[in-house]
Amino acid sequence: MQLSPVKTKYRILNFTLKWIFATSLGFLFSLLMIEISEKPDMSFMEAAIGSLTIAIPQSYLLRKIISPVKWVLSTLFPWVIIAAMGIGVLGWTVTNSPFLPTRLFAGIIIGGIGGLLIGISQWWLAIPPSFSSAWKWIFVNMMIWMIAIPIGSTVGLFLHRSTNLFLGEVAGLAITWLLVAIFTGISAVKIIKDL
C-alpha cells in the first residue's frame, strides 16, 4: 500500500525526531561514563561503552524490523575496531590540532574510515537482506560522518578558542552527534521503508 505524500513526510519526520532524541540521549548519557579526550588511544572499554549507549536506544526504535541484539553488536564491533586502529573513539575523541585545515582534513579521513566500518558492519550483520537498497547504508553512513566530524570539530575549535574552555570541544562533539542523528534518521527511513 502506497502512503500519501503527507503521511510519508509525517512518517519520516516522526521516526527522525525519535531517532535524534534516542541518539542524542545516548550521547549525553555516555558523557557520564566516558571522558572526552584529545588522545587517540582511548580504551576499548570506552569504545564499547560509547557504542552501547548509542546502539541500545536506537535498537529499541528498530526492534520491529531489525533484531536489537544484531543492531547492538553490529554497532559495538566497528567502534572497538576503530579504537584498535588508533584513530580514537569516533564521536568521543577530539582532534588535537589547533590548525583548522588539519582538523577538517583529519575529520574527513577519520569520518570516512569510521563511517565506512560502521556502515559495513550494520549492513552485513543487522540490516535484513530483504531490503533491496540496504547496501546504500554503507555509503550514506560514510558520507554523514565525513561531513559531521569536520563541522563539529570546527564548531568545537571556535568555541574552545572563544571561551578558553575544553567544554567548547564537547559542544562540538554534540553538534557532530546531532548531525549524525539527523541524517542517519532520515536515511534510515528512506532505506528501510518499513519503519
How would you describe the overall organization of this protein?
The chain contains six helices and no strands. The protein is mostly helical and 195 residues long. The longest helix has 28 residues, at 136-163.
Notable characteristics:
single chain; 195 residues; mainly alpha
Q: Termini distance?
A: 14 Å
The structural domain count equals: 1
Spans of at least 5 consecutive residues with low confidence: none
| Total helical segments | 6
List how many beta strands DSSP finds.
0
* Rg from alpha-carbon coordinates: 16 Å
How would you spell out the order of helices and strands? HHHHHH
- Report helical residue fraction: over 70%
Report the sheet with the most strands, covering strand number, pairing sense and barrel closure.
none
Shape call: globular
Strand content: under 5%
Helix- and strand-based class? mainly alpha
Mean pLDDT: 91
List the helices and strands and how they pair.
Blueprint: H1 5-30, H2 44-62, H3 68-84, H4 100-125, H5 136-163, H6 167-191
Helix pairs in contact: 1-2, 1-6, 2-3, 3-4, 4-5, 5-6
How do you describe this structure in short?
This protein has 195 residues and is mainly alpha-helical.
